[in-house]
Design a protein that fits this description.
By secondary structure, the chain is of the alpha+beta class. It has four domains: about 100 residues, Helix Hairpins (Orthogonal Bundle); about 100 residues, Urease metallochaperone UreE, N-terminal domain (HSP40/DNAj peptide-binding domain), CATH 2.60.260; about 40 residues, no CATH class; about 100 residues, Sandwich (HSP40/DNAj peptide-binding domain), CATH 2.60.260.20. The protein is built from twelve helices and 15 strands. A four-stranded mixed sheet has the order 10-11-15-14. The chain is elongated and about 110 Å long. About 10% of the residues have low confidence. It binds zinc ion (2 copies). The site of one zinc ion has 8 residues, from loops.
Length: about 375
């Protein structure tokens, strides 16, 4: 009696190739000898055999043919030649099993490793954006231990590991469904370094790194963009076992300004003037990022008129051309006039509903 491969994989006869693949993956994970030991070996072989057939469209079609009752178990058993394990287990979070099949078994030999990159958030003022800024920041950081020069060894000397002879790897022979397989694994004694410390450095407890407050000079160029960052190369954390130092990323935030809003290299502000200044015009003092400037208003300046002061904005990061300052004039209408002032204004402007042009009058004006 032929084996029921569908039953072995626990899938429906109408299962898609994808479902079959998934089912086998699940079983392989469960019954792999490395995980389940000898108990799983038979099950693993069986599941593999089923997958050899059902996982292959052509073979599956043959197997499915009515009356044939499938293949004998010998037809497709043995040999993994048709299975691309890398394909099968890719992205399945099951990389280790693939490594074993490919005979490597090299699981992350612990060699030099780069130090972490660091992020530092920095708030600066708009004035500092204008002038640029050089400052020192202090951050707690892992640096290479000076006492042992990062070796972790008290006398600074590392001796060759006697367990692996300095290779960092040891060979292990293991029985698997494919017979004896030689695995190469990381040496436990030296954790793959191939070298050993005879006595630990006391300063860093043998790690080769110590935590320290490090002062780093930061230069923020003029006109620096909001929410961009500076990369300070080689100022991150120290690497491990001679690995490179990480980088420091300074993320710059510009604090809100009392007067100005920023858009790229242009500055925006509002200046309030009184009614008589609006009517008669004249010179007013306006704020700039550097102090103040004079602005000449024409007679009859309307509220919300915007004046552009060329070159009074922020310096550009990539060019030396400064942006502009845009000033919106707000005309303040007096709320509480004295009786005398009220009378005078009524005399000038009148106090008749007819003096206010309605919408339709305006349309008429416009048309005529
Ligand atoms: Zn040390
Ligand atoms: Zn070793």
């Amino acid at each position: 009696m032929a084996k029921d491969y569908y039953n072995i994989l626990g899938v429906d006869k109408n299962a898609s190739q994808d479902e079959i693949k998934k089912a086998f993956r699940k079983l392989a994970k469960k019954y792999h000898p490395d995980i389940a030991g000898n108990v799983g070996e038979e099950k693993f072989k069986e599941a593999n055999e089923a997958f050899q057939v059902l996982g292959d469209k052509q073979k599956r079609a043959q197997y499915d043919q009515p009356g044939r009752g499938g293949f004998g178990s010998n037809d497709f058993s043995g040999g993994f030649s048709n299975v691309n394990f890398e394909d099968l287990f890719r992205d399945s979070g099951f990389g280790d099993i693939f490594n074993m099949f490919s005979g490597g078994g090299r699981r992350g030999r612990k060699g030099p490793k780069a130090g972490s990159d660091l992020r530092y958030n920095m708030d600066i003022t708009l004035e500092q954006v204008f002038s640029g800024l050089t400052t020192k920041i202090e951050i707690p950081i892992y640096v290479t231990c000076k006492a042992c020069k990062g070796t972790g060894s008290k006398d600074g000397i590392l001796k060759t590991c006697d367990a692996c002879g300095g290779s960092g790897e040891v060979k292990k022979v293991q029985r698997t469904p494919f017979g004896q397989t030689v695995f190469i694994t990381t040496c436990d004694k030296c954790k793959g370094l191939g070298k050993m410390i005879s006595e630990k450095c006391e300063k860093c407890n043998g790690t080769g790194r110590v935590r320290e407050n490090k002062k780093i000079e930061i230069k923020i160029p003029e006109g620096f963009d909001e929410d961009s960052y500076l990369r300070v190369s080689g100022q991150g954390e120290a690497g491990y076992n001679g690995g490179p130092t990480g980088d420091l990323y300074v993320v710059v935030h510009v604090k809100p300004h009392k007067i100005f809003e920023r858009q790229d290299s242009d500055l925006f502000c509002k200046v309030t003037i009184n009614l008589s200044r609006a009517i008669f015009g004249g010179e007013i003092e306006i704020p700039t990022i550097e102090g103040t400037a004079k602005l000449k208003l024409p007679k009859g300046t309307q509220s919300h008129t915007i004046f552009r002061l060329r070159g009074q904005g922020l310096p550009g990061v990539h060019s030396h051309n400064r942006g502009d300052e845009l000033v919106k004039i707000i005309v303040e209408i007096p709320k509480n006039l004295s009786g005398k002032h009220e009378e005078s204004l009524k005399e000038i402007f009148g106090d008749d509903a007819k003096t206010t042009k309605g919408f339709f009058d305006k349309v008429k004006d416009f048309v005529s």
